[in-house]
Design brief:
With about 325 residues, the protein is mostly helical. It has helices at about 10-15, 20-60, 75-80, 85-115, 120-135, 140-150, 155-160, 175-185, 190-200, 205-210, 215-230, 230-245, 250-255, 270-280, 280-310; strands spanning about 60, 70. The chain has a two-stranded antiparallel sheet with strand order 1-2. InterPro entries: ABC_transporter_permease, MetI-like, MetI-like_sf.
Length: about 325
Amino acid sequence: MTLVKDTPVLAPSERSSGPAAAKRRGRRESLAGYLFMSPWLAGFLLLTAGPMVASFYYAFTSYNLFTSPQWVGLDNFTAMFEDPRWRKSVEVTLKYVVIGTPLKLLLALGVALLLAQSRRGQGLYRAAFYMPSLIGASVSVGFVWRALFSDNAIVDSGLKAFGWNLGGWIGDPDLVLYSLVALTVWQFGAPMVIFLAGLKQVPRELYEAAEVDGAGPLRRFWSITLPMISPVLFFNVLLETIHSFQIFGSAYVVSDTSCGPADGTLVYTCYLYQKAFKETQMGFASAMAWMLLLAVALVTAVLFWSQKKWVHYEEGAK
């Protein structure tokens, strides 16, 4: 007697094979992927790409929210350069970027060098120094900072104890910007953590060899530490520079929504906000936004070009 094995009955979809079936499976997988991505795609198109395209069109129009846009070509851009307050906003922003960004990175690197050494309570110190960055440039921090730097407040009283009678920084057009610089420097936790990660990757053998050759601490820092962490330094410089150009919340709150006094904190985004939502000049504000984008893109391109001269990558790591 010959035994015949039962042959399983396959579904039509299981019996099909070949290129046609593979294409159908690929289409079903792609459809499932797009369905999962659809919330992000909808948000990107409606909240990012769409407004960007609209603002690019409005930049060449006269539009005030109450009338339909009228094409004016490059008039918004030419009027921008003739506006003294626009030039003032560029000056204030550049001053903030040039002063605040290097100070923040220097403090972050200095603290990272201290925390990179093994010591008791290291985790507690790292958390304490990182805590201000978790708070961020929120409205509550702006109000606290405004109270600290007002006339006869804590900072003013402390400086008077050392014989420095500077008065309230918030009310002084020449000093109010430095209160914003102090705020951004105080929140150095994020670049500090990145510097710490870079310092941990430096081989200890390099320091040991340098010590044998008689190199001191400064020499080891200049010849070993800086070149080895230069990619991390470049990343922090790039990131913090872009963030500095985008400052708005702290300047708006500290100056009591006036970007003053005497336009002392009239950073670029603050003037853009005034033009868009206080004066309802949406066309002019859109042109300002695209000028800011071009400026940040230019600075980014210059930084990427300059990295060839001072950023050192390991072989094959570029």
